[in-house]
Fold this sequence. Notes:
By secondary structure, this protein is of the alpha/beta class. The chain has a single domain (78-410), classed as Metal-dependent hydrolases (TIM Barrel, Alpha-Beta Barrel). Helix content is 27%, strand content 20%. The protein has helices at 2-15, 140-143, 150-155, 219-245, 257-264, 275-288, 303-312, 338-346, 350-357, 371-383, 388-394, 397-402; strands spanning 17-18, 22-30, 38-46, 49-54, 64-67, 72-75, 77-82, 159-164, 171-174, 176-179, 190-192, 197-199, 268-272, 292-296, 316-319, 361-364, 420-424, 433-439, 442-444. The strands form 3 sheets. Strands 1, 2, 3, 4, 5, 6, 17, 18 and 19 form a 9-stranded mixed sheet that branches. It has a 6-stranded mixed sheet with strand order 9-12-13-14-15-16. Strands 7-8-10-11 form a 4-stranded mixed sheet. The termini are far apart.
Amino acid sequence: MKKLVTALLLLAGYACAETPSVIAIRNAKIVTVSGPVIAKGTVVIRNGLIESVGENVAVPAEAMVVDGEGMTVYPGLIDALSTIGIPGAAPAAATATAGRGGGRNQTQAAPTGTPAVASAPQARSNGPEDRPQTTSWLLAADEIQPTDRRIETIRGAGVTTAVTFPTRGIFGGQGAVIDLITADKSGQMVVESPVGQYIALARGGFGGGGFGGGFPSSLMGMIAYVHQVYLDAEHYKLVKEAYAKNPRGMERPQYDRALEGVLDSKRILLPANRLVEIDRMIRFIAELKQPAILYGMREAYRPEAGDLLKKAGLPVLVSLHWPTPPTGPDVHLEDESMRQLQTYDLAPTAPALLQKAGVKFALYSDGVETPRDLQRAVKRAMDAGLTRDQALRALTLSAAEIYGVADRLGSIEKGKIGNLVVTRGEIFDANTKIEMIVVDGKKYTPAPDTTGGRGAATDTPGGNQ
Length: 465
């Protein structure tokens, strides 16, 4: 009976997507992002790719034609940092600890997508050689579950692509760019993998008491651990290269899957919310000598933040989960610090100030996944000075550029993946209706947002507060 229900659910999911090999949207306003706006034009998608776009494009006879009169076509939005497709990744949970070779003090993590359960206490970690809270070898591409209900929800907001990561522990694992299609195999969703290593620095460890009372047991200890891992990885790489060149008479280097995962990572993602953290992480990245992205940015509204980031030349990801003051009869805002009150008020100004400073940035949902909540979050940044075009770029082409996939995503150009959002009204306006979404050339009609804009609460991403 369970198998029958599962099969029916999968069939229902497929019914939501029409899959003609050729789709033509004509007589529509087309916002390409990478070039000028086409006041009235046609975009043709064939076999999942944009075949042509322009004012005088011929419509193929075999195409399914959509009359775009009164509509606007935008590139599909990109969520630049998420756990979409990995149901068990948020909130972060305890995972395996692995020593060299992934074996020492190893404990088994709960399978992704299953409810969290109490686990036995982990063995005490005595130093970096135990690789505490490290699963750097995990690939998001291997963890994707097409049945994650959040896929349909956020796709209804116009998000066609997510950069998704395992997020447990300090070294969570390597992310993947995925297209949010209805699929029976997760491999059909993966656009690029791996794209970076997710690193979190949660003060005090999970549960507030460090990692079983062992190493690392403080924020500075975690930073020192990350630094040591990269020193170990560089030494490991040199030893492997020397052995590969001339193995005779040389002791065989021991395989370390934690370091293999680190070396496989194209870039690292590090958390930075407060101004002091932004400064600290910029200095830390200079020591690590690794391509890096900072995420969080709750105090990026401070002018010093833009100056620091511009000088460092680092791209950043700005959370759309704007901090809001607590409510309730026992809440006394007069007890809050002036700095915290400023953050409540000014955090949404960060994108506009980063834009003015010339810092490359993208926006990410950070748990704000319902269509209404996502629209409201972006609108807050726009009300604080970010223009509509800048907001759109931060959710499309800039995100693609930061992850090195702008050759296939982020704008409406010939040869790129056919990811589109078709609206009646301007994107991010409260009264705008999303008429259809196209992902990988598949057409979807968004389901009504029945949540009332409740949204989802998340903790500060990556800790480090």
